[in-house]
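Need tokens for this chain, all 140 residues.
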Amino acid sequence: MKTNITKSIDEYIQNFPEEVQSVLQKIRKTIQKEAPEATETISYAIPTFVQNGNLLHFAAFSKHIGFYALPSGNQAFQKEISRYKSGKGSIQFPLNEPIPYPLIKKIVKFRVAENLEKTKKKVSKKKSPIQKKKSKPNRK
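Here are the structure tokens for all 140 residues:
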């Protein structure tokens, strides 16, 4: 059995009908606009954006677009995503309804800020032992 593993988001999107490709491209552009420094990749066999760690993933299915903003993205927007089928880290946007691009934009902004804050905390934790050594006076 031959598996069809895509190597890029472009290749992934090309595997779908034109109307779905259009939705996927618009989601991609929305993410790119809100996270211009993010890197595109394929992870878990689906389009992924990485910036200071995994930012989010998205995927097309026969009747919906799966949007994966990790658990924190869903928790922060519970009210806005309540009308969609969702799980711990996933949201399903039905293809027979308008895709909520403004909501996607807000979630991407949130995830960029969240990942940046986590990175800052990691960096400050790594620096603190060095800073403590430097602040001790030399006693001879």
